[in-house]
Hints:
This protein has about 270 residues and is α/β, with parallel strands linked by helices. It has 8 helices and 14 strands.
Amino acid sequence: MPDPMPGLESGSIADEFTVDRWLGGRLILVQPRRGHRVGTDAALLVAGAGTPEGRIVDVGAGVGAVGLALAKRSALVSANLIEIDPDLARLAESNAARNGLDARVRVLTLDVLNPRERHAAGLVESAECVVTNPPFFEAKAVRVSPDEGKAGAHVLPRAEDGATLSNWISVSLALLAPGGRFVMIHRPDALAAILAALERRLGGVALLPVHPSARAGAHRLLIAGVKGSKAPLRIAPALILHGADGRLTAEADAIHHGEALIDWGK
């Protein structure tokens, strides 16, 4: 069976937490032992974002993996990590310090869908890059896990208060400066909703399907685009994660170890 979190080496610091060397040891993360854990989706998002410069915003940052990895990759990056869960936000702050990034990283504990909280935090249309791995489901559509960590990571709460994928995308784009780049990972079956939310807000959109194996349908979709661009939509070369032997392909292995970026094609 393939390693569920390739590129991550673990050790114990307490019953509740582990300390993990992620992306081939490039980043050290403390994260909860149970519930949602940093894995392939985060590695793909980091690889998809490339090497941004300037201010980046990680919307729904969790323990900080994606934003911290991008700040680690480039000394020209300053990062805002937005996380609603105060316990995860505290871990993100400690992870920033643990990796020597606290001078360039600001962790904001807030509900990004709440305009008052965004305004109070001074979040404006100024980021050069916004990355996000939104919760994949709306509460009305799935059976919510009793594990609060998994539920918070996988399910959008309070649909009646505007907590929808469309609003999540709209808010993320509102944080992006004109000409800035947006990168997201999500489910392929949400493509129609994603494109509707991006319409007239983002151009040069590239869609990159991610397949668990060559014979399997895509189970993830990477999306990237530029705010204000007039370039047409295109489909980027697909990424295959596992070969026939069940092992990671060479490309996927390099991505999990922080040694390669996503090939978005031309």
